[in-house]
Amino acid sequence: MALQLGDTAPDFEADTTEGRISFHDWIGDSWAVLFSHPKDFTPICTTELGYMAKIKPEFDKRGVKIIGLSVDPVDRHAAWAADIEETQGVAPNYPMIGDADFNVSKLYGMLPASTSGDPLERTPADNQTVRNVFVIGPDKKIKLILVYPMTTGRNFDEVLRVIDSLQLTANQKVATPVNWRDGDDVFIAGSVSDEQAKELWPDGWESPKPYIRIVPQPEKVAG
């Protein structure tokens, strides 16, 4: 069964460049981003890993941990990290999972359950479906799934934008419209009746249509 939004993110133990982890314990009370790669020493992924290292402070500000995965042994990740630093100006400053037994890729539906063999004998094309981004909440539920082709680099600024929305709407009765950015106006959630909305927004709201109720963005609530 494919993972769906709202499913519990599968837990696992794995070796990483920062030691062995138990995934749910590693997440703790934080948010997390797990982003996967078909193989070490691939060009598009090289740029992605470098960019994530550059913007890691933005994830830190939001209380979000980031972790990468590649379907290669951990001992190859160090040499790749040196290439990333040389070409992108910064090395990964977050853990990278070695998924040489394909366990995590299978758990997350990125490779068929029948996948087996020596990962070093597989080509990037063999693992082309391992190009996902999973955003996971402190409740260990999956909040976002993005899947990219190998030929298209991922937009991690968009991941940050979605996290801003997820963290706001998790604790406020609002939803964010198209191309929303932190600080923009928001919509009162459809689950809120007009009677309830009057209690929450006594000053009212802009309503070009009865089902569109626009209010200033409320303050984010921690948790």
Summarize the structure in words:
There is one protein chain. By secondary structure, the chain is α+β, with helices and mostly antiparallel strands. Helix content is 29%, strand content 22%. It is built from 7 helices and 11 strands. The protein has helices spanning 23-27, 43-54, 56-61, 74-88, 103-107, 156-169, 194-200; strands spanning 13-16, 19-22, 31-37, 64-70, 96-98, 132-136, 142-147, 174-175, 186-188, 206-209, 212-215. It has a 5-stranded mixed beta sheet. A 4-stranded antiparallel beta sheet has the order 8-9-11-10, covered by helices on one side. A two-stranded antiparallel ribbon has the order 1-2. Helix 2 (43-54) crosses helix 4 (74-88). The longest helix is centred in the middle third of the chain and has 15 residues, at 74-88. The radius of gyration is 20 Å and the shape is elongated. The mean pLDDT is 96.
Topology diagram in text:
Layout: E1 13-16, E2 19-22, H1 23-27, E3 31-37, H2 43-54, H3 56-61, E4 64-70, H4 74-88, E5 96-98, H5 103-107, E6 132-136, E7 142-147, H6 156-169, E8 174-175, E9 186-188, H7 194-200, E10 206-209, E11 212-215
Parallel strand pairs: 3-4, 4-5
Antiparallel strand pairs: 1-2, 3-6, 6-7, 8-9, 9-11, 10-11
Q: Please state how the strands of the largest beta sheet are arranged side by side.
A: 5-4-3-6-7
Order of helices and strands: EEHEHHEHEHEEHEEHEE
Rg over CA atoms: 20 Å
**Low-confidence segments:** none
Query: What distance separates the N and C termini?
Result: 30 Å
Mean pLDDT across all amino acids: 96
Number of strands: 11
Which range best describes the helical content: under 10%, 10-25%, 25-40%, 40-55%, 55-70% or over 70%? 25-40%
Overall spatial form? elongated
